[in-house]
UniProtKB/TrEMBL annotation:
It comes from Rhodococcus kronopolitis. Keywords: Cell membrane, Membrane, Transmembrane, Transmembrane helix. It is a multi-pass membrane protein. The gene is urtC. This is Urea ABC transporter permease subunit UrtC. InterPro entries: ABC_transp_permease, ABC_transptr_urea_perm_UrtC, LivM-like.
Amino acid sequence: MSILTRGPGRTWAGFALAAAVLFGLAPAVLSDFRLSLLAKFLCFAIVAVGIGLAWGRGGMLTLGQGVFFGIGAYVMAMHLKIADAELKGSEVPDFMQIAGIRTLPGYWAPFASPVVTILAIALLPALVAFLLGLGVFKRRVKGAYFAILSQALAAAFAILLIGQQSTGGSNGLNRFRTFFGFSLADPANKRMLFFIAAGVLLAVVAATRQLMNSRYGELLVAVRDQEERVRFLGYDPANVKLVAYVTAAFFAGIAGALFVPIVGIISPADVGIVPSIAFLIGVAIGGRATLLGPVLGAIGVAWAQSAFSETFPSGWIYAQGLLFIVVVGFFPAGVAGLFALRRRRRPTDTTTAAPPAVETEMEFAR
């Protein structure tokens, strides 16, 4: 039985188990360094949930999630740098003083306010996704064309950031000292950031499950599989896709904002084509058509990258590429799809209703 068809009791039990692991077991057995590393992986998992909704359920190969991740991250980073400058009695952040910038740029000024910063983190990525999606989906751009367009957007965004001294250029923004008044040097506050990331991930998974189980979720799958039939029935597929795309961007923006105080740096290297593809690889390996597959895949791939890079610094990228090829070529439903397929093949009583078919998603991108 798929997680999307479980009863309320089993669903709540699953969330309770996840909460026990994240809020109880992990802080008890992991060192502060490893716990901070896991918090970073949870940020990737939040992005992966949105990709699973847009790609796995909606058939939109989103190769540009780094853009929305970067918007949320840079908004948060600008606020933290302004707050640090104010603590030192300076009008501009330290890196601007080194670059010879004596006045705070106009587009930085609104982010001195914590309220404006939080609203911008939530709204800016979603607004950009809405405007882009409106232009793309209304023109019926899809498949490989949509994937190339979103990837080009990620490349353009990274190049734009590199050329801007006011955002740190290729070095990005780093050396944050406080987070809304809390010192980032305090281990207790670092644990607080982990708990925030864990709570946000659980909330995002719960919201996505609700979407998938709703009438909208069924309509999104219908658009993915038979777009013209859905249009014939009187629905606009562009609007259906737009909701999933904006939701995925909203999740990515929140993840980027959490990433900044947890990791302590954001640069163009974190928001371009390579990280956007890395997000996608985790989702594909975990299982893009399932709810928990993207989460487990993103965390697993990020953990493997960290573990293998410590031992084989130059070999991980080849292992990652090989793993992606093997999964896409031979296990298109991902690791989670393998377990679902095994459950489907178990002998069942002929008097009971057959379980719903497992979505194997044999095509890499529709």
